[in-house]
Amino acid sequence: MKLLQIALLIIIVLGLLSCSGSDPLDQDTEPPYRPMLRPHLGDTGDAPLTWNGQNIIITDETNGIDTVSEGNFIRIPWEPFVDTDLSHVKVFRFSNHDPNPVEIASNVSASNMYYLDTSSDLIERNWYSYYIHLYDGSGNYSVSDTVSYAFLAKSNLYTPENGEIVSPVSLTLKWYGIGTNASKFRVLIWDEIGNIIYHSDIDVNTQEDPLETIVPTNLLSDLPHGTVLRWRVDAFDNDAEHDIMMGSESHERTFILE
CB under 8 Å to 184, separation ≥6 — which residues? Predict the structure, then answer.
């Protein structure tokens, strides 16, 4: 009888081990909390706003999906992830020309706060839509919402040249922008610590190329000699089918006050 009990005990243990090997009780099958992409909320120089319960000052880093000054690229940011046991992100894209989603990035670190789409096949005035899969360490994933944006051709800065020493009196900034097919331009100037000290919206229909704006003398005259300021020109245009404007940011330049 004792031998029979021992044999039965061995069979039960082996059965439990067999079951635990094929279906572990502690396996994580819960997907991460759904990630949230940030849509295009506005453009640098716009007034602050409230979105998703947050008070947001609109800058290049906070305004959501947008183009960047460095190239014809699209930056896709997301809100901080909720979970901590995360592995990586996959990024998918489709467009109004090609509605079939394509995986464009397969192993973006979950510690990143955005993905920069530097694909060489991006086309001006074509609306691109993005969503992501967020994976945890066990291979579970959740799917984000979708955000969209379209970019224009960049304006080309004309004068002053990069690093040029200029007079603060009636400083005129000029750029070529007609080829962007934009309806509006925004001239932006930042100080040495990144604060916007000047922005001016220019209607493209009021001038011929090169377009220009005169910076108010009283804005610059109180700044110390040798101050380095950074500037660029953003282009915008409306789209009848979307509630946001498509746009672009020119490459940036600096000038130095004499």
Answer: 201, 202, 203, 204, 235, 236, 237
- Among 144, 116, 147, 152, smallest CA distance to 129 is for 147
Whether residues 123 and 178 fall in one domain = no
67 neighbors 73 (Cβ within 8 angstroms): yes
**125 contacts: CB under 8 Å, gap ≥ 6:** 150, 151, 152, 181, 237, 246
Question: What are the tens digits of pLDDT across the range 91-102?
Answer: 999 998 899 999
Q: Are 127 and 242 in contact (CB under 8 A)?
A: yes
130 and 186: one domain? no
Distance of alpha carbon 248 from alpha carbon 71, whole angstroms: 9
Q: Is residue 222 part of a domain?
A: yes
Looking up residue 98, the CATH number of its domain turns out to be: 2.60.40.10
* Residues spanned by the domain of 108: 49-149
CB environment 212-224: b (16+ within 10 A), e (fewer): ebebeeeebeeee
CA trace torsion 60, 66, 67, 69 (10° rounding) = 0
* pLDDT tens-place string over residues 106-151: 999 999 999 999 999 999 999 999 999 999 999 999 999 999 999 9
19: exposed, middle or buried (Cβ count in 10 Å: 0-12, 13-18, 19+): exposed
Q: Which residues are bridge partners to 19 per DSSP?
A: none
Nearest to 170, CA basis, from 185, 160, 155: 160
The SS3 call for residue 16 is: helix
- Identify whether 224 is part of a domain: yes
CATH number at residue 202: 2.60.40
Boundary of a domain, candidates 99, 122, 149: 149
Does the predicted TM-score (pTM) go above 0.70? yes
